[in-house]
Amino acid sequence: MGSRREVALSNVEIFGPAMQENPYPFYQELRESNPVCWDKSLKAWVVTRYEDVAKVLHDSRFSANRIDAATEQIKSPRYRPLLDVMSRKMSEKDEPDHMRLRSLINKAFAHVALERSEPLVRNRANDLLDTFRTANGGEFINHYAVPLPLLIILQLVGVPTPDTQKVKNWCDDFAFIALNYYTHLPEEKLEKGLKSVQEFRDFLKQRIAELEAQPEDNLLSALIAAEHEGQRLSVDEMLANTFLLLTAGNETTTCLLGNGLAALLEHPDQMQRLRHNPELIPQAVEEFLRFNSPVQYLGRIAKEDLELHSQPIKKGDLVLPVIASANRDPEKFTDPDTMDIDRTDNHHLAFGHGRHFCPGSHLARLEAVVSFEVLFQQSTEIRLDSVLLTDLEYRENFTLRCLKKLPLQIDFC
Ligand code: HEM
C-alpha cells in the first residue's frame, strides 16, 4: 500500500471557518480531486463520493464504536461516567450488541405507532404557528423548529410536562459531549455534562420505578417491557439510549425544518408549486434532506488495514463518510446542486445507510411533512423579514448544518 495522500485544497483548511458558510464547493473539489483524503488536523480520512460513503457505512470492516478514539481528556477517571454512558448507546455498538439494543428499541418504537403520533404533531405544529399570528411572523428556528421536535419526543418518551425544561437542559449538555468527544473540550462543558448525566440517572431511576408500578402508553414504558431473547435493557442501557432518543432527533429535525424552508424561500417558484400541490410535500422533504443535509458527516473506525479508493487505511484510523457530499455527487444525482422538489429518484443518504440507518426517520419525515402542510394551510404568503438570504448564518457546527435564525413575515389566512 502507498502512503497517505493529504488534502491539497487551494490552501483551505477542511472543516475550517471558510467552509462554514457553504461547504458544498469544498465537497465538490474533494470529490473530484481527492475523494478519500487524509486530513492532518482532524486526523481522519474524509470520504466524499456517494459510492465510497455507502460502502463505508455498509462494510462491517468499519466499526461504529468510536469510544477508543475519544480524547485522553475524556478518558480520565473523572469523566469516565460520561464515556460509560456514551459507550452504551446503540449508535456506538457493532454486532451482535447493536442488534440486541436496536431490536429492543424498535419494539418500543413500534409500540408508539406513528399514525397515533400524527394528531399530536399536527396539534403542536398549529399551536406553535399560532404564536406567530399576532406579530404577523416571528423567528422560525427558535420559536418553531427547535420546540416542535423537542415537545414531540419528550411526550412520546414519557417525560412529564413539569420536567421537560430540566430534561432538555440535561440532554443539551450531554448532546454537546456526545457530538464532540473526539476533540478537546472546555473543562466546564465536561463538568456540566457529568452533572447532567448523574442527575438524569437519578431522574430516570425514579421514573422507571413509577412506570413499573403503573405502566403508561409511552416509549419509556415500552422500553421497560421490551424483551429480546429473554433479555431486557439494564438501567445504564436505558439511560444511554433514552438520552440518545431524546437527543438524536431534536437538532437534526430542527435543521431539516430550517434548511427546507430556507431552500423554498430561495426558490419562490417551488414554494408556490408546493403551496398549491401539497401532495408533493413528502417528495419535497426528501429533496430538502438531500440538498442541504442536516447531518453532514458520520464517523467510523477501521477494524483492519484496508484500501479504499487506493488509499491505505490502517486499523484504528478514523474515517468520516460525508453524507452531505454523497448527496451532491453527480455520479448519483442529475444536477445535484439544483434544488428540485420534483426529483423522484432520490436515494439520498441523509438518514445514513446500513445497520445504523436512522430508526427515527419516519417520525422526522412526519414532523417535516406536517409542518409544511400546516405552514401552507395557515398562510397565504411567507417571506424573509428584514434580512437577505445571503445574510442567513449557520451555527458553528460542522456535523450538523443548521441555521442560527430564520426571521419570517407571514400573511396569515
Ligand atoms: C431530520 C431528522 C434526522 C436526521 C437527518 C437523522 C439522521 C441520522 C443518521 C444519519 C443516522 C445514522 C448514524 C450512523 O450511521 O452513525 C441516525 C441514527 C439514529 N437516529 Fe436519526 N436522524 C433524524 C431524526 C431522528 C429522530 C426523530 C430520532 C428519534 C426519535 C432519531 C434517532 C436516531 C437513533 C436512535 C439513531 C442510532 C441508530 C443506530 O445506531 O442503529 N433520529 N440518524
Mean pLDDT: 90
Helix tally?
18
Label the overall shape.
Answer: globular
Spatial order of the strands forming the largest sheet = 1-2-8-5-3
N-end to C-end Cα span: 65 Å
Largest sheet: 5 strands, mixed
CATH class: Mainly Alpha
CATH topology: Cytochrome p450
Number of domains: 1
CATH superfamily: Cytochrome P450
Total beta-strand segments: 10
**Ligands (ions, cofactors included):** protoporphyrin IX containing FE
Give the proportion of residues in helices: 40-55%
Oligomer: single chain
Q: Name the CATH architecture.
A: Orthogonal Bundle
The helix/strand series, from N terminus to C terminus, equals HHEEHEHHHHEHHHHHHHHHEEEEHHEE
In angstroms, what is the radius of gyration?
Answer: 21 Å
Structural class determined from secondary elements? alpha+beta
Low-confidence segments, given as residue ranges, are: none
